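Catalogue entry: protein

Sequence with per-residue tokens
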Amino acid sequence: MMQSAKLAVCGGQFESPNKTTYHTKNLCYVYPDSGALPSVLKEGGRSYRGMLRRPKPTDSEADLLREQEQFLTSGAPSAANVVRRPDKRRGEAGGGGEHNGENEGRQRDVVTIEDLPDQLPSLTPAPPKKSRFKASRVTFEAEDAEERLDRHDTHISAVLSRIVERDISSTPVSLPAFTGMAFPKVLHRSETNSQVPLSSAGGRKSIFACQIAAQRSKEGKTPLHCAPEAAQTPGHNLPPEASMDTDQLDSADDQPNTVSAPRLVSGQGLEGPGSSEETIRIHRENQAKLQGMSKSEILQEQKKLLSQLDPRLVEFVRSRKAQSVPSSASPSKHPQGKSSKENVPLENVSRESGSCSAAVLFQKPQEVEMEGVKEEELPPAVTVEDLPVKPQKEWVHMDKLEPEKLEWMRDLPAPRRKGTKTAMQARFDFAGSLIPPTEDLPTHLGLHHHGEEPERAGYSLQELFLLSRSQVIQQRSLALSTLANILSKARAGEYLPVLKGNMLSTLLDAGLLFLLRFALDDGVEGVMSAAVHALKALLVCAEDEECLDCTFSWFRGLASFPLLPSAQEEEDEEDDEGLPESMKDTAKEKEERKSDHDVARKDVVKGLLRMKLLPRLRYILEVVRPSPRVVQDVLEILIRIARHSSSSATQVLDCPRLMEMVLSEFLPTSWTAPSLPLPPSVYGLPLASTMKLLRVLATAGRHACARLLNSLGVRERLSCLLSAEPSELLLEPTAALRITTEAYRLWAVAAGYGQAGKLYIDLYPGLAKALQSIHRVTDPSDPLLPLQLQRILALLSLLTQVTHTAGCHQELQAGMVSSQGEQCPPPPPVSWGHVTGLQASLLGHLKGFVKNLDNPVQKGNSLAVIPAYLVYLEAYYHQLFRQGPGMLEPIPADSGQEAKYSLDRTPVHRRKEKNCFQPVETLQELELLTSEVLLPLLSHHVVQGLIKNLKSSSVVCNDQSSHVGPETNPSLPGLACPGWRDRPGLVVPSSPFPLLTSLALLLETITGIHKGLSSKFAGLLLSESVVGYLRGCSQATPTLSHTRAWLLRHEHHLLYLLLRLAHRLVPIVPEVAKHAPLYHQVALVLLPWLLPGSEYLAHELLSTIIFSKDFISEGHSGGPEAVELGELKLQEEAQHQTSPSLQTAGALLREACVQLPSIRGCFLTHLAHLEPSVLMSRDALLGRNPWINSYLLPELTGPTVPSDWPFLPLVSLYERTGVCDGGGLAVEELPQGALQAVIHCLQWLLLLEVWREEALKVIPPVAKLARLSCVFLCSSDLFLERPVQKLTWGLCRLLTRQSRLDSLDLNVPPPGLASFQDLYSALLTQYEAVSFGDRLFGCWVLLPLQRRYSTTMKLAVFGEHVGMLRSLGVTLEQLSIPIERFTSPPEDSLPLLRLYFRSLVTGTLKPRWCPILYVVALSHVNSFIFSQDAAAQEVEAARHSMLRKIYYLTDEVLRSHLLHFRLPRQHSEFGFDMYDQLPPIRAKRLESVLRLQDSGDDKGD
């Protein structure tokens, strides 16, 4: 039973719950929504009983009349009340209808105010009237506001105070003449209409206006709005800015006496009766002057006038000019004549959208040719003939046309664009395609509307945002569908060449995420479906998912990075400053305090989860039960959410009833065959997307996978789908292949955790049957061949993971026995004996596919499946080698044999010979595999052709490719795969990476088992394509991002495996050993590239290749001797070189080569903190499935090893013992072993700088300098140790070479530091405290004082730390930097020059204490005092002052040095050359300064 609705009056508008309100101008109709009237209605104490039936569409007229009579006799109130709102502007008190008078006291609320008088005060002025002349008044800012207010005051007191008697003594008095007419004259409407035609009156005007217009026409004065067109004058040929706005003679009438007054000069300021004539005279004089001037003179006078006038006044004059548009006087003489003012249509007023944050994108400027019209013609006013439908007489209110309302019925003008480079607003059609601004589309397409730019087809983003919140269902649905299409094209990168800005970022910043989330809550299914599709277009990229599916069967293809935003902003911790750790908010508490907008701005998926997206999607699937397309979109959205992170996948699993409903409806255990290929509903049918969702959820962790298999019944569903052939399933063939493929992939993920082993035993017959049919289903004529290949690859991935799991059975069983209560994973149900029978069958398949490479038709299919077979064989032989003869197995309790126990009561193990590793048979088998399969495969011309594409397909070598990728957003990372088929890459069919990676992986395993096979594969490393690829990698600097990380990970695998093969071949194959430096270089650059999840690869590179003597061939092939010869050559050139910088470099390098094992141990010790990650990575890479916790790789925060890892021992020592905030050392003495660690670090750095310079190019020179400075900051005496001194001298000499100094930029902050100046300040403090005048430390301090670097560091030395000048005794011979880098160009900092001068004259800086800086200060001061360059008065005064003080110095030696300094010279006595006597120009300069002083002294006297 409906509740009676109560009306609420709110601002003149009725709002009623459960009712619909309709509004007209002043009437309000209120109707109940639905249902019959209540049985009892009350109003004013009266009751109406009975039930009144509503009229039905089937009622006849008699039924309606009878019901009307019943309603009137019942006295019930009407359902619709007509209320007439009072018009306050007309003074109406109000009225509510016919019975308003009798019910007035009962229906109106009367508001009374006690102190309000009944009548208004008599002195209250009347409301001001609008004046037609008010707009033409000119006001000035300087005018006093009070005076203006008094002048215009209309109060009666103001009028009475200004009564002044007018002098009428000279005014003639005339009596009125008597006439027979009435006074005033009565005007009849017929007379007024006949006086001025409507067309000339300018539209709808009052009678008074028409009379005034008629009077002016009689007087011969043309109204302003119909003034004649100006005649041609010299000013008309000028640009619009240069032409004066005046009225010229009418050339058509040729009447010089009829001249209209100028528009801008009115003559109001002139007094007397002849003001109008004076105005015309001035106007004619101006015209005469203009006609007598040339075009250039007019332009010159105009510029002069504009420069003198106030810009606001100029703008006012131009606005007055723009207000009056002259009409065309003679169309024949003016072909480009302008329409009259009344024909100018009203400008389209742009409606401000309610969505203030709506997105606006602009098309990039394009040059479009102008049409043949110089000025845009204004369209004529709308007339009856222009209307597509002519109004009829019987139509109500159509007797008078309203142009502003009929403007939209006019035909649209052709879209035209001016030739400008200004960007234009982007407009899209319903398919999301960008519409060019010059394209003229027909109106029947529905792309024209009445918003901004109605002549242009399409909708802007702002308009689509507005329509998406419309009350019309179709508009909301259409806007959301269009936004979905735009998002799809934006994700594909189609807008990048034509739009400015990033489409995705613009839409997200405009609030698209909240718009779509609100639309999901819409009650209309169509709008809800469109919102789901738009959300799917925003989150999901089909090409990304396709690429991840293609790489699933690759080595480590099951694993993937979480799609978390990598550019996380730093948290604002200002509120937590000064608080103890216990009182600071945790990360979870800070996250909870953030608003939804802040969360979504940083992470779109996290923001959606916070906005309760998952319960809403469950509601849509469970209650709405939408169409198959919407179901597919929802499942894809859930897949993208599960790929975000493990926590997001857990939220999907934890959402109440979500997964249960998805599994019961879209992955049932039984179903009926659909009657149509495309069923109208997919409820009750298994979907491949559902299986893929389960697979992605299982990737998040082993616990999630176990939960799916056991709690949600996925194990039974796998058994149901995989126990039969795809053709036997009651599904369409394509759907059957897709869902069985995804089922195999899900099973492979479960087997990757060591789970679902019992399922393998149960379905083994089905798997064997599927393997037997592989060659049959790979028929090239099969239209479903791509799906069949994907199914085969998924099956091989499953068998690979089951083989790895079975290989761990014995180890886990032995560990469970020996653990004695300790936690140990249980052994899987599947053992090694369950998988050994498959190897022979799969090897036979591989041989057949290798032979098929000769068949052009089957070549592509063979290349697609061969990598998966190679990965399986690697897993088999790797696990077979682990089943060694030393593996023992306990006697089962039910074997019938008596168990034997040792003295400590532990069971005695017996050797199990069956299915264990048999060395002789295995080696023979590997030799047959090599000769029959691997070598023919490697030498095949098809494979060789693929290898040639190695460099072109590389992501590392083509990091700076010109390809424009799709749009990405930091808050919504993706893989940037759209268009991947059209460009080279790792995943395309022409890529050699899957084949080479799987082949190198197999070679790594079999050469580890049979080392004699290694040399047979030397041709792979010696091939020209592989060598060129490795050279390209050694010089590359790839960038790290989500769009590249998933591909870089696979390429890193190939590089690592090639280096492992080189590690086996370099000691035994001389040809391969020649390329050892190249392999070492690649290993050095690969180490800091390795991503999270590859820590084991980094450990292996450090343990085997990087510190291997075999790969540093220079150490045993004359490398140190060559360096020593180079030193001798340098000494011969320098002759006086005495610094210990490189005299012993050869010996130092020789010692470093001997210490390589110790150096390796040092670095492995300092990387020990990565041990947990290394163990996890080892389990994943070596196939130890029961120990793997998740196939979701660690978050992509950066490389595993920092790029400056060679400095790691130094940096870690500085962090433990370095200078603290207070300026002192954190510890008094070095930890044990620290000195040796520093020596090993410096030895390794010296070796890299000499022989592997390219490997350190990723470290900026300023970073090298900053990290080597830790040698001086770690301890008070570490730099004084003899080995440290020698190694640091060598590194200092290498860093100060000419090429290195040019690239050293100290203005760039070193990585990890705020600025180099802060570090230098700590160095200066340390030097003053503990240096003891050490020459090495002194060179390090002098390095940043070169002229090209910041003055701040020089000011610190000569200002705050001036005391260190007494101990900075580095000589010019010991300094490896040319002195010219300190003295050239001359110093221009006046404060620094004054410090130089002060330190010289006060004796703080002396040549025996600090010879280098003494020369530097002399050079700069000398250049300053004798400079002839023009300078400011302060600088010139300082020059004169210094020169006078120098002349009167009592220290003759310093005076001579300052005046006679010539050039710095390294090998002279003082380090510089001097003039014997002052040059004439300097002497003249000195004389003029002294004379100037003398004249000043005389004036003072």
Notes: The mean pLDDT is 79.
